[in-house]
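dude i think i finally got it to work??
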Amino acid sequence: MATVHPHLDTQSRADEFLALDERYSAHNYHPLPVVIAEAEGAWMTDVDGRRYLDFLAGYSALNFGHRHPDLIAAATEQLGRLTLTSRAFHHDQLGPFCRELAELTGTDRVLPMNSGAEAVESAIKIARKWAYRVKGVPENQAEIIVAGSNFHGRTTTIVSFSTDPEARAEFGPYTPGFTVTSYGDASSVEAAISERTAAVLVEPIQGEAGVIVPPADYLPRLRRACDEHGALLICDEIQSGLARTGELLASAHDGVRADLYTLGKALGGGILPVSAVVGRDDVIGVLQPGQHGSTFGGNPLAAAVGRAVIRLLSTGEFQQRSRELGAHLHERLTGLSGVAEVRGRGLWAGVEIAPGGPTGRQASEALMAGGVLCKETQATTLRIAPPLTISRDDLDTGIDAIADVLAK
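look at this
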């Protein structure tokens, strides 16, 4: 079993970097006070040489661990050839990337972008244009149904339908055209959907809200409601997708196919931002030249890394690892003292700390001191998402650390 080196309360080089961040970077995050300098697999090393077990994996951006050799090789090879053309010209990685991603996901067409928020914004634009051009919704009257406690990004449009006061407050005026329903309550969607509904946009599992898994009938009922009213179902799989839950896409657990999926995070292999909207040809096909774009979207380096990610996923190895190690993770976490509830699927868990225990932030800081890095979400939830490459011994090391923190 790998050894965790505990944090030492001594003056360190980290203080220099923390002071620089405090002085010069925008204060839009509240990170743990650790400064990482190197990483490999499931382990990270800070500027003072202390090692930490990564139990967050970049919110699923590092599904394949740090510096996976296949992904580094693909990036290095492409760096020696071509990195950017813009979309003014074709390049030899874009077509293969789009074909391979469509084949992997069982979809028809791919719109490559960069960040996850860009993918969601793109899906919103596509759904609205489809509603006007295909469904016949009167101009400027298209509506998109979303779920409360959602997290789809932090752009102005996306925070317009957020129910998180911190994400939304003082960023108005807000973009209209969204109806918020209760997550997990299919009847609220069925009551809200109408002939003006362009799409229903939903996370198959809500990550930021605390790794919330909806009832088993939720996504199937949303699918039926969309079919009955001629609306699109959009599944945001940016955090839940690409093997994190034990399936390629989390929506597959409920036997549901969406019309559009948004993908990101792990699609870039933890190397650079890569995102995409994938889905039906007749839906994405409403976009014509000049109507949407991105200078860096689908660039040669991103496409080469994305293709290497697709190759890793196509074997099914990581889906299987997530299922098997995830079952072990959930079994052990559920039996821990100080745990009120464990939610999630695969190698993804929201650990609800029992009343009287530490806050999520306090638990995260205590784990950091013991050499394990994860992060709270909401006030009393630890979000656990180790790399899918983690060994069972290292997984147990992290679970043991959580047990120790909550027992104290």
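Confidence is low (pLDDT under 50) at residues 5-10.
im so relieved honestly
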